[in-house]
Specification:
single chain; about 35% strand; alpha+beta; about 350 residues
Length: about 350
């Protein structure tokens, strides 16, 4: 079983510590996404698993084997890089076959593996071409095919779609999801794109400054964020935040918020260590707000984005707090209008 386990993993470059005491368990066959802003340590963590960087301390196990002293080629992993890293003078076939040739596989076995991977990726017609004759999406498929032929215990993807345009990124994301379903292999995927994380992952690991902020399924993190950072990072448009105080419910699962002209009871209280009167921030997702002429939250429209299937409205409250509203329909709203909203306190959060 190709489980991956990290125990107390730390990494420093000189005096700068970039990974802080990470513990993580990844089950066989899981699709796990490391997500976070640039510089949060997600690619470094992936490179530590791959053996491309050395640990400062801690342990890493792949398929129940300690791999700290093993080179990348002996860890049972295959990695797909952001830059494709294809050999320009070789055909697609020879790019995919190269690592197998180095390992001494027979020509018949190499051909069988390459052709099987090409069939999975629907690129049999590309095997005689060189990388210069391929589109960006085709090159990425070759890089994925080169990983498939190795039959690894674990696939590692390091921001593989960042060089593609939006439409191609979507198509390739769908291909990767189908590929994982077909192969059932343990997959660890790094991205800064929270849409990729939400759509691909069985489990998301949110990182900030080299520390794990939260681990869980996409909807667990979306509906029950462990802290304000996770709440603000996941979701598009981003969650709205309003300043206020905790006026009731201290020490319980839900609290009462008062501030910025708003009063709400029964709001999920993320930190139960708060006392009545403490400063808190009320978080409401733009999708969870409802147009309501008598609603408690009023703002002046500053920008309207008509996206066809969705309308995103930017507003400013009387206290000059900017916030957003998102509706799954086209709305007749214009800049300068005053609009009021209500929201379900049960879908809001107090941080």
């Amino acid at each position: 079983m190709a489980q991956v386990e990290l125990k107390g993993v730390n990494k420093s470059f000189g005096k700068v510590q970039v990974i802080h005491d990470v513990d993580l368990h990844i089950e066989h066959g899981e699709f796990v996404v490391f997500v976070g802003p640039s510089g949060c340590g997600k690619s470094t963590l992936l490179r530590l698993i791959a053996g491309l960087e050395n640990l400062s301390s801690g342990e890493i196990f792949i398929a129940d084997r300690p791999v700290m002293d093993l080179p990348p080629s002996k860890r049972g992993i295959a990695m797909v890089f952001q830059s494709y890293a294809l050999y320009p003078h070789m055909t697609v076939f020879h790019n995919m076959a190269f690592s197998l040739d180095l390992q001494g596989f027979s020509k018949a076995e190499i051909r069988q593996r390459v052709e099987a991977a090409a069939t999975i990726l629907q690129m049999e017609h590309l095997l005689d071409r060189r990388p210069a004759a391929l589109s960006g999406g085709q090159r990425q498929r070759v890089a994925i095919g080169r990983a498939i032929v190795r039959n690894p215990d674990v696939f590692l993807f390091d921001e593989p779609l960042s060089n593609l345009d939006a439409a191609l990124r979507h198509d390739t994301r769908v291909e990767i999801a189908k590929l994982h379903e077909q192969l059932g292999a343990t997959t660890i995927y790094v991205t800064h794109d929270q849409v990729e994380a939400m759509t691909l992952a069985d489990k998301i690991v949110v990182l900030k400054d080299g520390r794990v902020m939260q681990v869980g399924s996409p909807m667990e993190l979306f509906n029950a964020p462990a802290n304000e950072f996770v709440a603000g990072f996941l979701g598009s448009p981003k969650m709205n935040f309003f300043e206020g105080v905790l006026s009731g419910g201290a020490g319980t699962d839900t609290g009462q918020f008062d501030g910025e002209g708003l009063s709400a009871t029964g709001v999920r209280l993320v930190s139960q260590e708060k006392s009545t009167g403490d400063a808190v921030r009320l978080g409401i997702r733009p999708q969870h707000m409802m147009l309501d002429a008598n609603g408690p939250l009023t703002g002046t429209v500053t920008l309207v984005e008509q996206l066809g299937t969705e309308t995103v409205v930017e507003l400013q409250s009387a206290s000059e707090t900017s916030f957003r509203f998102a509706a799954a329909e086209s709305l007749d709203i214009k800049a300068g209008q005053q609009v009021s909203f209500s929201f379900d306190p049960g879908r809001a959060h107090l941080f």
